[in-house]
Amino acid sequence: MLPFLGEIYGNPSSVHHVGQRARAALDDARERCANVLRCKPSEIIFTSGATESCNQAIMCGAWLGREKGRHLVTSAIEHHAVLHACEYLANNAGYELSVIPPDSTGRVPAEAICEAIRPDTALVSLMAANNEVGTLQPVSEVGEVCANNGTLFHTDAVQAFGKLPFSGMDQFNADFVSLCSHKLHGPKGVGVLFARSPLQLPPLIYGGAHENERRAGTENLPAIIGLTCALEHFVSVPIFSAQKLSPLLRQMKVVVDRSEFASFRGNSSFSLNNTFSFSLKGTDSIAALSAFDLEGFCVSSGSACSSGSVSPSHVLAAMGVDSTEANALIRVSMGRETTKEEIDAFADAFPRVLHQICRPTTSPTACE
Ligand code: PLP
Question: Which one-letter DSSP state was computed for residue 102?
Answer without folding.
Answer: -
